[in-house]
Amino acid sequence: MRDYKLVVLGAGGVGKSCLTVQFVQGIYIDTYDPTIEDSYSKEIEVDGRACNLEILDTAGVAQFTAMRELYIKNGQGFLLVYSVTDKKSLEELLAIREQIIRIKGTSNIPIVLIGNKCDLADERELEPEEGIAVSKQWNKVPFYETSAMYKMNVDDAFIDVVRQILRKEVEQ
Ligand code: GDP
Ligand code: MG
User: Fold this and answer.
1) Which of 5, 12, 129 is nearest to 60 (CA)?
2) Which ligand 1 atom minimizes the distance to the CA of 36?
3) Which family does it belong to (predicted)?
4) What's 85's DSSP letter?
5) Which residue has a Cα nearest atom 2 of ligand 1?
6) Residue 74 burial by CB count (10 A; 0-12/13-18/19+): exposed, middle or buried?
7) What's the gap between Cα 71 and its chain centre?
8) Whole-model pTM above 0.90?
């Protein structure tokens, strides 16, 4: 079985940890601590291939550190998460994507764009169209609106990025 390294990135409070735990453990745990950075592993089968995912749930305390450089360098797939209730959190992803491209030296990188907390209709600051517009700017990376709370589109988003890694392996 092969190992694949995924990295979950985005502003504090957008739901990175809730999404990761929902995907890995199938439960919604709300113990918000923006400073906890942890890694998880999960075995799944994608298109008939057994994969061992190592998922790093980052905490964006210091954005431009050597640590961050290192895990971006090692990461094979990236989940870039904003919250549909926080306009600024989408803007913050632009710099994060630039950083990934700079470190990787290419823009051909497995990425999904995630607009989380889509269940919070009353607090919405961003419509799906705004996520779609960013995904188009980014070479049409797949875009998902998710709810970690209600497990909407969570598995789909993680599996999508794995599928992109697998496809890239075939190309090489
Ligand atoms: P992180 O800093 O990106 O890891 O954010 P967390 O995963 O810790 O989530 C921050 C807060 O947002 C928590 O208090 C969660 O309750 C809330 N949250 C996360 N995901 C969702 C979601 O899909 N829907 C709703 N309503 N709240 C969420
Ligand atoms: Mg967190």
Assistant:
1) 12
2) 4
3) Belongs to the small GTPase superfamily. Ras family.
4) T
5) 13
6) exposed
7) 14
8) yes
Q: Which residues contact 31 (CB under 8 A, 6 or more apart)?
A: none
Helix (H) or strand (E) holding 52: strand 49-57
Amino acid at the residue 86: D
pLDDT in tens, 116-161: 999 999 999 999 999 999 999 999 999 999 999 999 999 999 999 9
The string of DSSP codes covering 15-46 is SHHHHHHHHHHS-------TT--EEEEEEEEE
User: Among 161, 168, 56, which residue's Cα sits nearest to residue 111?
Assistant: 161
Nearest CA to ligand 1 atom 17: 15
* Token code pair at residue 122: 């009353």
- The dihedrals phi and psi of 100, each to the nearest 5 degrees, come to -60, -45
What's the CA gap between 140 and 45, in Å, rounded? Answer: 25
The phi, psi pair for 32, rounded to 5°, reads: -65, 115
Which residue do the tokens 């990295």 mark? 7
- The DSSP bridge partners found for residue 50 are 45
ipTM higher than threshold 0.95: yes
Q: CA 168 from chain center: how many Å?
A: 18
To the nearest 10°, report the CA torsion of 124, 150, 16, 49: -130
Structure tokens at 12: 């504090």
